[in-house]
Amino acid sequence: MGEFIRTTIASNVARVVLTRPDLHNAFNEIVIAEITEAFRQMSADPSVRVIVLAGEGKSFCAGADVNWMRRMVGYSVEENVADANLLANMLRTIRECPKPVLARIHGAALGGGVGLTAACDIAVALSSAVFSLSEVKLGIIPAVISPFVIEKIGMSHARRYGLTAERFDANEAKRIGLVHEVVDTVEAMDTAIARLCETLIANGPEALAACKRVLSDVGGVGWDEVQALTTKRIAERRVSPEGQEGLKSFLEKRAPRWDGA
């Protein structure tokens, strides 16, 4: 049990629940650290066969916490790289977990929330859920989450939604491969997740871990090199004049002035 997450284990299924409903489960450095540690513990726990990642309240995860963003505005490039590595390591801990990880998506999954979704093996979403790679609206880029997102939806869809920052619904998320099942009610979502958990638990745990490893190995992505590149790029963008204007305009609740006026 952390400050901003709740973990439970029952019948070989671990649940990691984001518990910041008042902030739409937006994450800061504390949330990132707690999720990372929870997945490390679950990875090493032989009683855990499947992990479900979910959020309390109206949203799954609305991306970065405003107060965290306010602090990062004043960070140096080096501080931004260190900060971005925390997020990258969290997403890799989820993706590289030897246990199957299911995402339970409702409400908003924005920015880093899309990254969380993409890092999971399987995602089930309510038809009312909304998604967006919203970073360019703030003058920054979806750098750290990009390898996870591209792995799920491919370069073509990543180009469209990364450049437009438009919102898309759960059916579109399924069409492009970000989520695997779309249902209309919470009850149907929990039924689908329970069915998937039962199916996964029936499989060999060592085989599941080995399957995840081989699929990762043949994917062709050098994750250490990619992480070094993406954390550097987001750090540079955050401290750039346009990135500073985008972040400050968001925090000040005004339209950004992209012309530098």
Topology of this structure?
Blueprint: E1 5-10, E2 13-18, H1 29-44, E3 50-55, H2 66-72, H3 77-95, E4 101-105, E5 108-110, H4 112-119, E6 122-126, E7 130-132, H5 146-164, E8 168-169, H6 170-176, E9 181-183, H7 186-201, H8 205-218, H9 223-239, H10 241-251
Parallel strand pairs: 2-3, 3-4, 4-6, 5-7, 6-9
Antiparallel strand pairs: 1-2, 7-8
Termini gap: 48 Å
Relative strand content: 5-15%
Secondary structural class: alpha/beta
Average pLDDT? 93
Tell me how many strands there are. Answer: 9
The major pleated sheet works out as: 6 strands, mixed
SS field, number of helical segments = 10
**Helix proportion range:** 40-55%
Give Rg in angstroms: 18 Å
| Shape assignment | globular
Q: What would you say this structure looks like, in words?
A:
This protein has helices at residues 29-44, 66-72, 77-95, 112-119, 146-164, 170-176, 186-201, 205-218, 223-239, 241-251, and strands at 5-10, 13-18, 50-55, 101-105, 108-110, 122-126, 130-132, 168-169, 181-183. The protein has 261 residues and is of the alpha/beta class. The protein has a 6-stranded mixed β-sheet with strand order 1-2-3-4-6-9, with helices on both faces. A 3-stranded mixed β-sheet has the order 5-7-8. β1 (5-10) and β2 form a beta hairpin. The mean pLDDT is 93.
